[in-house]
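User: My collaborator sent over this chain with a note saying "see what the structure looks like." That's all I know about it. Can you take a look?
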Amino acid sequence: MSTPPSRHTPSLWQTYGQVFASRRIAAMLLLGFSSGLPLALTAGALQAWLTVEGIDLHTIGYFALVGLPYTFKFVWAPLLDRFEPRLLGRRRGWILVFQLAMALACLALAQLDPKTSIRFIATLSVLVAWLSASQDVVFDAYRADVLTPEERGAGAAVSVLGYRLAMLVSGGGSFILADTRLGWPGTYCVLGVMLLLLMGATVWSPRIERPAGARSGAGAELKGFVAMVAGGALVWWLASLLSRPVLAALEAGALGQLVAETLVMLLTGVGAVLVARKVGFPSFVGPWDAFFSRPHALAFLLLIVLYKLGDAFAASLSTSFLLRGVGFSQAEIGAINKGFGLLATIVGALLGGAWLSSRSLYQSLMLFGILQAFSNVGYWLLSVLPKSYLLMAGAIGIENLCGGLGTAAFVAFLMALTDRRFSAAQYALLSALAAIGRVYVGPVAGVVVEQQGWPTFFLLTVAAAVPGLLMLWWLRREVGALDAQRDRSAVLADAD
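Assistant: Without extra context I'll predict from the sequence alone. Here is the result:
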């Protein structure tokens, strides 16, 4: 049996050195930064702002639902592919529009007071999350379109670096700035101005043209999208109307209401997809059909949702825990949690990528999944032992390092599942499903902490990782088949 030809893997310095030799790679760094900057504005930074203003934990937990657009971005992703502004050519026009709108929304948020305008803050935060999720969809597609095959590895690494550096700025940097200089309104103004400046990076990025080929009719696309949204809205209204008397009869508490709302959302999604299929929404239905034609498609989707559930559960209230549960200051959290923690995540992702180059995908997913589950024990120790800066640094470093390892394997898994014919739409769908855990565990986390306390909560985050590991073990042969497919693709690429 012939052995596959060896592939040259550039060193880390060679990879990042290409930033200075290729405008396309440099653009990935800058646009990756733009993609990562808004995430903390509707997550950790927003959570800290509400916490220091004295907003109750129950309300803060529900603010995790602000991230819903990251879960449902696959719904409008086909429209972003089909319709584009005429300025700047393919992809970049949408990125520019989203950057401008996010900057204006951040500047508007800075004018509000959480104690008196909590509803307006929630509305603008959802808008920022929607714009950010839409920018992510277009940036992922732009990255795939603009990079040559030889540049894709370096481009992916550099865009992740830019994304993490942005999270360091909007996470750790914003905490320090808010605590020592400007407060949260001033900090949101600074971040809004940064988004305005990043519009220059979009204009400077290389131009790409729309490829030639048949395109679905605009009328059919718009008709399908409107029908899908209207059908989903109708299902949501009916399901919500019917659930109210049931909840009242059962005298359901906060957790029961959350379960009911989750079921309503699931019914809404199923109804919307059925309407889209019935009416016809070509750019939405095609990628779905291609994915569900593979064996065990539903099981793969469930694995995507469950794999990082424990990690997301622990992270959902980690900032509030460090502030209110342990008593650290915002500056301390910014320096250690958002600074050192993100650095550990970057190191973990790089180590995970190196491990993946010589190990199977299944082995990597299982090992890193176990590590990221047990890394939450550090937070449990913080909740039961006296306040300690060394213990906080150790717990945060280990948790983020293991989370980075898991993320490297998980992204490789998503890429292996993606059909190249529908890479933008399918990756949007799969990454949106991966965000479900991060979004929906927030309300559950708030209820658990209020009723059971922090120590029980962090033990439950370890248990929450078990279903994903069991699902991975059940799909071990299918994940192994993805590895074999990847190896065949590498051989064909070398042969070409």
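A starting point for your reply to your collaborator: The CA atoms of residues 258 and 443 lie 7 Å apart.
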